Amino acid sequence: MNEAEKSKMLVGKEAAKYVKDGMKVGLGSGSTAYWMVKSLGERVQEGLSIVGVPTSAQTEKWAQEFGVPTTNLSEVSALDITIDGADEVDQNLQLIKGGGGALLREKMVAIAAKKLLIIVDQSKVVDHLGSYPLPLEVTPFGWELTAKRIAALGQEPIIRLNGKEYYLTDNGNYILDCKFGKITQPEKLHEQLIQIVGVVETGLFINMTDTVIVGNQGEISVLEKK
Questions:
Q1: Tally of helices (H runs) and strands (E runs) in the chain
Q2: Is 106 among the catalytic positions?
Q3: Alpha carbon distance 134, 156 (integer Å)
C-alpha cells in the first residue's frame, strides 16, 4: 500500500469514530470513503447499530460487502452525519466534489445531515479552488446548448467520457468538466452556473462543512471552520 492509500485508510478509520450507536449516516463516495465504509462494517460486526444512506451505487455495493445496513432518503427525514471525500478543499473549507460522478446524490445526502464531515489526503488541500476541473451534472437533452451557455462564462466545458461513450451518472445525466482556473468567488460562480437551464447541480459545495480530516504521510490533522 502506497503512502497516499495509507493516508486514505487512516482518515477513513478516524472518521468512522465519529459515528455513534443509533445514528443515521450518509455514506460518501470515492476511494477515501471506501475505507470509512469498511471501518463502519467492522464496527457493525462488533455490535454498532446504525443505518447508512449511500451516495452512489458503488458505495451501496461496499456497504453490502462490509455488512452496513442501508436505506434511502425516501425512508429517513434527516441524517445525523454524512462522511464524504472531496476533490479540493480550500482554506475556507469550501469544496469541489464530483470527480467520481456522484455530485448530485452527494449534495442531497450532505444537506440532509446535521453534520458533513469531509475526509481527504493532504494533496486535496489547496489555497484556492479551481486547479481541479469543476464537474457539472447536466441533462442529456440539449446538453450541447447548455455547454455553450456555460462557455459564455469563460471556459469551454468538456463532456466526460466512459470509454467511447458519454459518462452517465447514477441519475442518467451527463457530466461536464470545466476548468475555470483559480476560483476566488465560489459562491458567486455556483449561483451563475445553477441558473443555467440544463445544469442540474454543480460540484461546488459551499458553506456545507466545518470539519475536514486530513491524512498526510501517516499523520492525521483536523481543519475546523474559522
A1: 6, 15
A2: yes
A3: 12
| CATH 3.30.9.10 corresponds to the domain 3-125+206-224 | no
Domain boundaries, the chain: 3-125+206-224, 134-202
Walk along the chain (226 residues) and give the pLDDT tens digit of each residue. Answer: 787 888 899 999 999 999 999 999 999 999 999 999 999 999 999 999 999 999 999 999 999 999 999 999 999 989 999 999 999 999 999 999 999 999 999 999 999 999 999 999 999 999 999 999 999 999 999 999 999 999 999 888 999 999 999 999 999 999 999 999 999 999 999 999 999 999 999 999 999 999 999 998 889 999 998 7
Predicted structure pTM score: 0.95
88, 106, 137, 201: the active-site residue: 106
- Contact call for residues 172 and 140 (beta carbons, < 8 A): yes
CATH number of the domain located at residue range(s) 134-202 in this protein = 3.30.70.260
Alpha carbon distance 88, 96 (integer Å): 5
Question: What is the C-alpha to C-alpha distance for residues 79 and 167, in angstroms, rounded to an integer?
Answer: 29
